[in-house]
Design brief:
5-stranded antiparallel β-sheet; 29% strand; alpha+beta; 797 residues; 23 helices
Length: 797
């Protein structure tokens, strides 16, 4: 065995190793340390030579370390590994993974120890943070204001206190082990069972859906289920939030207007408008109804609305019909089946028909939203790929320090408040409660708050604040529940005493009637779209005034064309609209011809579709980015195998059309497995990166293409290159890698990293395939390896 000072390979590996290495005497004296160990513990090499390993070992770990050393000296063990704490020069604790081997002399007597020390401090810190994170998560689910449960294949493993309360049990112990389906109404057991099986099989999160529960007192409760698969205590389980929607406030609206005044509005409305009697049969439909469904007016008047609704939505449609006849206007999405069997998703707004203070039926306005929902669904799926389970809860969550500053928030919170610094700022009324919470004088408190967002929208929230302790420090965990809909519904109930509003005034989009020269009628939504504070100022101007100058000609031509036709179909187009403040938005303009006050007029609807267009653009950009990422190798940042296959096929096709040579170089890092074994996978990864970047820099011809073919194997495509020039390129690559002089003490051919190369050249013909070029280059590469590695072979037939 060579002395250490003569073993150059060992000294190179010792000096340049990424982990700490040391030679230690049998008494514990540091004889030699490498730069990595100096960096890890903060001492210079001269300082180490004056110390023993006992001097830098944490007192609590010293005894066990000495016991392991004695076992090596007594011959009980050949080596030992352990995790221990070291004392940094600054006094900080450094966690290290220690591997120690005993080296003996020619007389089999202990000579010295070789120690390897890997810094695992950050790993230990991450473990502590993970434990803290899991504790916050457990606290959150226990104190969530939403009922929540965890089950495994339908068997309850956990249910929080709100869930116990909803089911009507005294304790969650009374429910553990029960089957979820035991509390599901018979009508919904099949769909719940199917959803559970879907998540077990696919590990995917389904869309939220509504079902009925039956509590322990046999009461039927309407709930919305939101489920997500996750791991809980090492088991694959399903987490379920079930929101009670039984007490949803219903909005009462009423209409009383002279029906004759708005008959033309209904008949010529670009959206489907229809009337239904108390039995559910159609009594009035406009032309848009017949165009959407394919049924003519006579067929409609012999039908019930129930015959159009698909079975899955029939219950929802019946409930909306019933609620409307009770004086509660409804807005909902329904799927209908057209006469030709195709399905269409529509957004329906219904209001009761009141005559002499009695409800005699309902009016409804429906719009085909199939395409819009499809775009929204695709965008939502794309976003959900990048969201964690915690982010999908539907509850805004924030962690505050003692000063009330937000330390951590989820996506839902940001969606509601716009930025982390907003939302839960404690006002003077709440300061005492907040202080008591963090001082441990109370476990939690609950408040309701009202906010005005930057865009002037009103937002109501129900906030539950609980204490969250992390070691010696206390934080406040805020769970924000959106109760805006409830508050708005309550407000609308108060306003429902104003019972005489028309269908037009309630229409959800901007609606107008344009006479010969100017606007004759607008609803409030149109007024809001153009940014007006009153209707009077808007009605004094023509529609063109609110259209962007570049689109005015198009709108004028469209209106003139519509006016000249006798019975025209409605026309829909996109235009840029201008508000009174000069800002603009993208509008979907639908217009048709009508009679208004015995005169010819234009009935139109303007919808703000700016967000929809932005969503479409965002989806296109995201898909393009994903396509770009999919073609690059994540480690080396050069093209991957998939990209290589596509480029080779393209170059093969181009070469076959011009009958010019196409060359390919396949290369492999010699003894790379030994490199990984010696320098670790991190060192191997760094080596691959250096090789890849060298190949990338070596490309001189703009059409040449370098890619990672797989593992430690790379490939270079050389278009318009014959065998002689391909060999020149291969020699240049071989020299560039040698010049890197990457140490490789595990190599059998050289103390540095080397490569073996295989070169093949073909002139593509119809009888050949691109795969033949790969096969030839691979055979040449195999020959280089078989004949000693660190060389170049050219394929010869």
């Amino acid at each position: 065995m060579k002395p250490i000072h003569e073993d150059h390979l060992f000294l190179n590996a010792f000096k340049y190793a990424a982990i700490g290495m040391a030679i230690v005497s049998t008494e514990g004296q540091w004889l030699k340390v490498n730069p990595s160990l100096c960096r890890i513990l903060g001492y210079s090499m001269q300082e180490f030579e004056q110390m023993t390993f006992q001097d830098v070992t944490h007192p609590d770990d010293l005894e066990s370390d000495l016991q392991s050393v004695n076992k090596l000296l007594q011959g009980d063990e050949l080596f030992y590994e352990t995790e221990k704490r070291y004392l940094h020069k600054t006094g900080d604790i450094v966690w290290g993974h220690l591997s120690v081997s005993l080296v003996k002399n020619d007389k089999d007597q202990p000579s010295y120890f070789i120690s390897q020390i890997q810094d695992i401090t950050e790993q230990k810190k991450l473990s502590v943070k993970l434990a803290d994170s899991e504790e916050r998560y457990r606290k959150w689910i226990r104190n969530s204001p939403e009922p929540m449960a965890i089950h495994e294949d339908g068997t309850l493993l956990f249910i929080n206190k709100e869930g116990v309360k909803l089911i009507g049990a005294n304790s969650y112990h009374d429910l553990l082990g029960d089957q979820v389906l035991d509390y599901i109404h018979d009508d919904y057991k099949k769909i719940v069972s199917e959803r559970i099986q879907y998540m077990v099989n696919t590990n995917q999160q389904p869309e939220p859906y509504d079902v009925k529960l039956v509590d322990l007192q046999s009461n039927v409760i309407d709930v919305r289920l939101s489920s997500v698969p996750l791991e809980y205590q090492g088991r694959k389980v399903i987490q379920v939030f079930f929101s009670n929607i039984t007490q949803r406030k219903q909005i009462e609206e009423a209409i009383r207007k002279n029906e004759a005044q708005y008959k033309s509005l209904i008949q010529y409305n670009p959206d489907a408008v229809y009337g239904i009697n108390l039995d559910g049969n159609f009594i009035l439909v406009n032309e848009t109804c017949t165009r959407i469904t394919g049924y003519n007016e006579e067929e409609f008047l012999r039908m019930s609305f129930r015959s159009l609704i698909i079975l899955e939505d029939l219950k929802k449609a019946e409930d909306a019909f019933k609620n409307t006849l009770e004086g509660k206007p409804q807005t909902l999405h329904l799927t209908i089946q057209k006469k030709n069997g195709n399905r269409v998703i529509i957004n329906v707004t219904s209001v009761p028909i009141i005559f002499e203070e009695k409800i005699i039926g309902l009016y409804a306005v429906a719009k085909d939203i199939t395409e819009q929902l499809q775009i929204e669904k695709e965008l939502q799926k794309s976003n959900e790929r990048f969201k964690a389970i915690f982010e999908k809860s539907g509850i805004g969550i924030v962690v505050l320090n003692r000063q009330g500053n937000a330390l951590e928030v989820n996506t839902t919170y940001l969606d509601w408040f716009g930025k982390a610094s907003e939302g839960l700022n404690t006002g003077q009324d709440e300061e005492q409660l907040f202080s008591q919470l963090l001082n441990g004088e109370r476990d939690s408190y609950q408040v309701e708050k009202k906010y005005v967002r930057e865009n002037s929208d009103i937002f109501y929230s129900d906030i539950t604040m609980t204490i969250l302790k992390n070691h010696e420090e206390a934080f406040a965990l805020g769970m924000v529940h959106d109760i805006t809909d409830r508050k708005r519904s309550e407000q609308l109930i108060k306003e429902s005493e104003q019972r005489y509003r028309s269908v037009v005034e309630l229409y959800p989009e901007g609606l107008f009637v344009h006479g010969e020269e100017k606007l004759k009628f607008i609803n409030e939504k149109f007024m809001n779209l153009v940014g007006a504070s009153s209707m009077e100022g808007v009605l004094q101007k023509p529609l063109i005034h609110y259209i962007h100058q570049d689109d005015r000609c198009k709108v004028s031509e469209t209106i003139n064309l519509l006016s000249e036709q006798k019975n025209p179909d409605p026309i829909c187009t996109e235009v840029r609209c201008i508000r009174l403040d000069g800002s603009s938005f993208i509008g979907e303009l639908s217009i048709t011809k009508m009679k208004y006050d015995q005169e010819c007029a234009i009935l139109g609807i303007i919808r703000d579709v700016t967000k929809q267009k932005e969503a479409e653009q965002k989806l296109k950009e995201m898909n393009a980015r994903l396509e770009e990422i999919s073609k690059m190798d994540g480690l080396t940042a050069i093209p991957n195998r998939r990209n290589f296959d596509e480029v080779l096929q393209a170059e093969w096709k181009a070469a076959s059309q011009t009958s010019i040579p196409l060359s390919l170089i396949m290369l492999d890092i010699d003894h790379f497995k030994a490199y990984n074994d010696t320098y670790g996978h991190h060192g191997g990864d760094e080596c691959l990166k250096m090789i890849a970047q060298t190949l990338k820099k070596s490309i001189e011809y703009h059409k040449d293409f370098a890619a990672r073919y797989g593992g430690e194997e790379f490939a270079i495509i050389l278009p318009e290159t014959d065998q002689e020039n391909a060999l020149i390129v291969a020699k240049r690559l071989h020299s560039m890698i040698e010049d890197l002089k990457i140490p490789h003490i595990g190599s059998k051919v050289c103390p540095y990293v080397t490569i073996s190369l295989g070169v093949s050249t073909l002139i593509p013909t119809p009888q050949l395939q691109a795969q033949e070029l790969i096969v030839q280059a691979d055979r040449a590469l195999y020959n280089s390896k078989a004949t000693g590695r660190n060389r170049i072979s050219v394929y010869a037939r």
